[in-house]
Amino acid sequence: MPIYTPPLRDMQFVMHEVFNVVDEFKNLPPHAEVDADTINAVIEEGGKFATDVIFPLNISGDTEGCTLDKATHEVKTPAGFNEAYAKYVEGGWPALSCDTAYGGQGLPFVLNQCMYEMMNSANQAWTMYPGLSHGAYECLHAHGTDEQKKIYLPKLTSGEWTGTMCLTEPHCGTDLGMLRTKAEPQADGSYKITGNKIFISAGEHGMTENIVHLVLARLPDAPVGSKGISLFAVPKFKVNADGSLGERNPIFCGALEHKMGIHGNATAQINIDGAIGSLVGQPNKGLAAMFVMMNAARLGVGNQSLGLTEVAYQNALAYAKDRIQMRSLSGVKAKDKPADPIIVHPDVRKMLLTAKAYAEGGRALAIYCAMLLDKELHHPDEKVRKDSGEMLALLTPIVKAFLTDNGFDATVMCQQVFGGHGYIKESGMEQFVRDARINMIYEGTNTIQSLDLLGRKILGNNGATLKKFGKLVGALVQEEGVNEKMAEFINPVAMLADQMTKFTTELGFRGMQNPDEVGAAAVDYLRVAGHLVFGYFFARMAQVALREIAAGNTDPFYGAKLQTARFYFAKLFPETASLMRTARAGSKPLMETDLALA
Amino acid sequence: MPIYTPPLRDMQFVMHEVFNVVDEFKNLPPHAEVDADTINAVIEEGGKFATDVIFPLNISGDTEGCTLDKATHEVKTPAGFNEAYAKYVEGGWPALSCDTAYGGQGLPFVLNQCMYEMMNSANQAWTMYPGLSHGAYECLHAHGTDEQKKIYLPKLTSGEWTGTMCLTEPHCGTDLGMLRTKAEPQADGSYKITGNKIFISAGEHGMTENIVHLVLARLPDAPVGSKGISLFAVPKFKVNADGSLGERNPIFCGALEHKMGIHGNATAQINIDGAIGSLVGQPNKGLAAMFVMMNAARLGVGNQSLGLTEVAYQNALAYAKDRIQMRSLSGVKAKDKPADPIIVHPDVRKMLLTAKAYAEGGRALAIYCAMLLDKELHHPDEKVRKDSGEMLALLTPIVKAFLTDNGFDATVMCQQVFGGHGYIKESGMEQFVRDARINMIYEGTNTIQSLDLLGRKILGNNGATLKKFGKLVGALVQEEGVNEKMAEFINPVAMLADQMTKFTTELGFRGMQNPDEVGAAAVDYLRVAGHLVFGYFFARMAQVALREIAAGNTDPFYGAKLQTARFYFAKLFPETASLMRTARAGSKPLMETDLALA
C-alpha cells in the first residue's frame, strides 16, 4: 500500500524562509494577524486530515468508482467518500480561505494552497468535490447578485452545499463560442435552461443535500460566438425564500463517463430539461464571469499534479531504499545483503531527483502564486494589487501546463522505479499516472495554456509582464552577483532570461508576419518559461540554504536543498537549449503542405 | 470506436524501395525464391487478419480482462480470444518464419516483423499469446535437445501448443542471479522443479491443449548468482512417448495480476510444485539459452510500441480532420463550418507529426533489424553472418528502449489530440497509453537497455560496432555529399555521428575512472544513439523520395515522406543537443551525497 507524509518542512521552508509570508501578510489588513504558529498549526492539522481521512480511500475509490442509479438520477460515490466529506465539513475546512462575511475563516490563500496540495497527494478524485465547489464560491463571490450571495455563499462556505462548473458540450470544449444550451427569460426574472453538458466533474453525488451548478448558456437574442454566452446559477433543488429546499430542478445526471483515471470523481453528463436558474453577472458576459472560476481552477489543476508528484516521489523513494537488485557499478554497497538497494544506481537516482525537483520547484511556484493572489485581493496599494494580478495572470498558464506536464513525467518515472511492480494496481503507482494524465487536458489543454501565455499574456502586452519577471531575476543578480557560491545557480537563470527577451521579440515580429509562428512555438516557449521560473525559485531557495549553512545551521535539509538545486541545473534545466532550437524551427515544418498528414 | 488500416504502402516502401529486401534475400539460400509479390500478398493477408479478427477484440478484451478459476487453475481469456487464436492457427500464421524441418513456412523474419507490427496495432494483449510462444520456439530451436525439438517444435510451429518464459520471481526481476526456484535431478534424467514465478505473460489460458513453460531454476550444486541458473522445459501436461498428452504437471496459475493495461493478456503468478521438466541447453548456462528468447523478445517489445504508435496516430489523424474547434490563427480555413478542423492548429500538427515520424522511423529500423536477423541466420558468408549479428546486438537495446519511449510519448500525444474525449475509455486512446506503458518496463527496463547498449555493446568492444554504424553514415555522405538537396538530411546526421564518436571516447575514459559515469550517462546516450539511427534512416528514405520525385513520380507518398523527414530534423532530432549536455553533466549531481534523497 502506498505511503504519504505531508511535506510540512518544505512548505514551511518556502513560506517562512524563502517568501517570508508572515511579513507579507502584515501588509494585508485581513491577514495582518496571521502568524507562523497559526500557519504551521493549520497545515499540520490539514496534513492529518489528508493522511488519515482521504488517503486511505484513494485506491479503494479508484477500484470501486461511481455508479449512477438511472431511475433516481442519483450517483453513489465510492465507499467512505461521503463520510470523509462530512469530516471535512465538520473540521471547517471548506471555510478556510472564504470571506468572513459568509461564515468563512478568512485565512490567506497561501494556506489553502498547502491544504489542497496535501489533499491532492492523498486523493485527487475526492479532492475535486470540494475543489470545484470552491471555484463556484469564487465565481459567485465575484459576480453574484446580493441575493445569490445570500443564498449560496454561506452554504458553500460551510460545505453544506457544493458547486460545479458546467461548460463543455459534446461538440465544444475549447471552443465555447459554439455552445448551444439555451436560457429563456421567465416572467419572474428567472431563466429556464435547456441543453446537454458533458465532462462535469463532481457533477452529481450524495455528499450534500444540494448542488449549485454554474451553467453557461445562450439567451434568445444573444450574439453568435463567445460574445453571446451568459452564466447561470442552477441549483439541483430550488431554494425557497426562507432558504429551505424546494422542488427538484430538472438538471439531471444522464450518465457517468468511463475514464482512464480519477474514478472516484463523478464525471457526469448533465441533461438540463427546463431547469430554473438565475443570471450570474451581466447578460452575454458569462465567459468573463466564468474566467474567475477558470483561473482558480487552472491553478488548482497545477496543484493537483504537484500533489501527485510529491506522493509518487515519496513512494518511489521508499521503494528504492528497500528493494535490492544488482550491485552498484562502483562496487558493493550493502555487504550484508545479496544485492544493493536500487537507490545506488545512477539512473534510479535521476528519476527520483527529477520528481523531487519538480515537486520542490512546483511547490515554490504554487505558494508564490497563492501569495500573489492574497496581495491582489487585499493589498492596500492599488498598484501592488494590479501588479500582483498581472504577475499571477502570467504565471497561471505556467502553473497549469508546466506543473502538469512535469507531474505526468514524474509519476511515470516514479512508476518506472518500481519496475514491473509499478504496473500492478496494488502498488498504487499506476493510479498516480492515470490520475495525473487528465491534468494535462482539462481546464484548457496545455496547448491552450501555451497560447494563452505567449499570445495573450506576453505578446499581448509587448512583453511588459515578462519584463517584470525579468526584473525579479535582475534583482537577485544584483543582490548575489558578487557571491561566488551563488554563481552556479544565478548564471544559468540570468542567461536564459536574456535569451528569452531576445527570443520573445523575435517571435513578436514573426507572429506579425504569420500568426501560425506563435502557435508553432508556444508549447516549447511555455516550457522554457517554466524553466526560467523554476530556475529563479531554485536560485532563491539555494540562496537561503547557503546562508543557513554559512551561519552554521546543521539541519541536513539545507544540504539536500542545495543538491536538488544542483541536480536541477545540471540535468533538467538544459532542455531549454533544445526547446529554443525547436521553437525557432518555426511553423514551416508543421504547416508547409497537407501531404504530411495524408 | 477506433479505426486501423494496415500501413502496407509504407511497409512496401521500406522493404522494396529503401532496403531492396528481395535482392538481399537472393543471397540467402532458404529465401532466394522470395519475391515481392509473395511479400506483398503475405502482408496484405496478415493485415486482414489483424484488422478483421483481432482488432475488434481490443477494447472488449481490455474491458473484460482475464479470470482465473481457482478450483481448476484454468484461466478464461476475454470473449473471442480463443476463436481468434483458432483462426490464427487455421491460417498457418504461427508457422510463418518457422523452420520447414518442423512444418514451418520458412519465410524471412522481415515478413514476421511486418505481421507482428500489424497485430500489435490491432491488439497487443492478444498478440502476446503467439508472441511469447514464438520466443519459446526460438529458444528450443537454438538450445533444445533433439528429443525436445521433436516433441515441442512441430506443436509450437503449428500453434497447437503455446510457450511461455518463466523468469521473474517476487524478489528478483532484473537481478535473476537471486532466483530461488529449484530443480532436482530425477533418476530418469528428468528434473523436478519447485518455486514461485510472477509476471508470466500468457502464463495460462485455454487457447491450446498444452503450454510449454521455459523455466529458469537452480540445480542443487549450482554456483551462487547468475552463473548457477539452468533452463528447463516444463509442459502443462506431460507428453507421452507417442506425443499424446499425459497427466497434468503441477505447474499452476495461482493468481492473475491486476495491471494498468494489457488486460486481455493473462499475466500469471505460477506456482511450481514439483513439476517435471527437462533441461534445455547446458547445466548452469540457462541465462545464455534464455537470452536467445530475450533478444527476440526485446525486438518484439519495440515492435509492440511501433504498432501502438501507428494505430494511435491513425486515430488521432482521423479525429483531427473531423473535429472542428476554434479558427486557424492565420485565418478561417473551413468557411462552410462554424469552426475549423483542429488539424489546422500548429501544435495539433506537431503532435500528429511526432507520432508519424516515430512510426515511420521505427518501422524502418525494425525492418532493418529483421533483415539483419535473416542475414545472421542464413547468409553463406560467415563474416556477413557475424557482422549482421553484431549490428543487430547493437541495435536491439535501441529498438527496445527508443521505440518504447517514443511509443509512450506518441500515444500520450495522440490521446492529447482528442482533448477530454481522449480520457474517455470509449475513444480507445487511453488504452493505447496504458498498454504502451508496460513496454518501457518488461524484458529489461529501459534503464537496463541503456546499460546494455553503452556498457556492453559499445564500451565493451571499444566502440567497434558503433564505428561500423558510423561507416554506414559515412557511405551515405560519400554517395550523396554532392547532392545539395540531400544536405538538410545528411548534415545533421553526419555531425551527430562525429560528436558521438568523441563523446563515446570521453565516456570510455570517464567510465574507467568511475563506473557510475556510465550509469549516469547511459539513458541520455541511448536516446542520442536512437536519433543517430533514426536520422540515418530518415536520410535514406528522403534519398529514395527525392530520387522518385526527380524522376517524375507524382505519387504524393514521396512528398509526404520528405515532409515527415524535414519535420523530424526540425522538431525532434534537436533534442540531442540537450541530451548530450545532460549526459556530459555526469554522475556527480546524482551521486554526490545521500542527503539529496532524504
UniProtKB/TrEMBL annotation, chains A, B:
Its cofactor is FAD. Its EC number is 1.3.99.41. Residues 82-160 form the Acyl-CoA dehydrogenase/oxidase N-terminal domain. Involved in the assimilation of dimethylsulphoniopropionate (DMSP), an important compound in the fixation of carbon in marine phytoplankton, by mediating the conversion of 3-(methylthio)propanoyl-CoA (MMPA-CoA) to 3-(methylthio)acryloyl-CoA (MTA-CoA). InterPro entries: Acyl-CoA_dh-like_C_dom (IPR025878), Acyl-CoA_Oxase/DH_mid-dom (IPR006091), Acyl-CoA_Oxase/DH_mid-dom_sf (IPR046373), AcylCo_DH-like_C (IPR036250), AcylCo_DH/oxidase_C (IPR009075), AcylCoA_DH/ox_N (IPR013786), AcylCoA_DH/ox_N_sf (IPR037069), AcylCoA_DH/oxidase_NM_dom_sf (IPR009100). Pfam families: Acyl-CoA_dh_1, Acyl-CoA_dh_C, Acyl-CoA_dh_M, Acyl-CoA_dh_N. It is an enzyme of class 1 (oxidoreductase). Residues 473-593 form the Acetyl-CoA dehydrogenase-like C-terminal domain. SUPFAM superfamilies: Acyl-CoA dehydrogenase C-terminal domain-like (SSF47203), Acyl-CoA dehydrogenase NM domain-like (SSF56645). Residues 165-273 form the Acyl-CoA oxidase/dehydrogenase middle domain. Transmembrane segments: none annotated. Residues 284-451 form the Acyl-CoA dehydrogenase/oxidase C-terminal domain. It comes from the Bacteria. GO terms for molecular function: flavin adenine dinucleotide binding; oxidoreductase activity, acting on the CH-CH group of donors. It comes from Simplicispira suum. Keywords: FAD, Flavoprotein, Oxidoreductase. Belongs to the acyl-CoA dehydrogenase family. The keyword Oxidoreductase applies. This is 3-methylmercaptopropionyl-CoA dehydrogenase. It catalyses: 3-(methylsulfanyl)propanoyl-CoA + oxidized [electron-transfer flavoprotein] + H(+) = 3-(methylsulfanyl)acryloyl-CoA + reduced [electron-transfer flavoprotein].
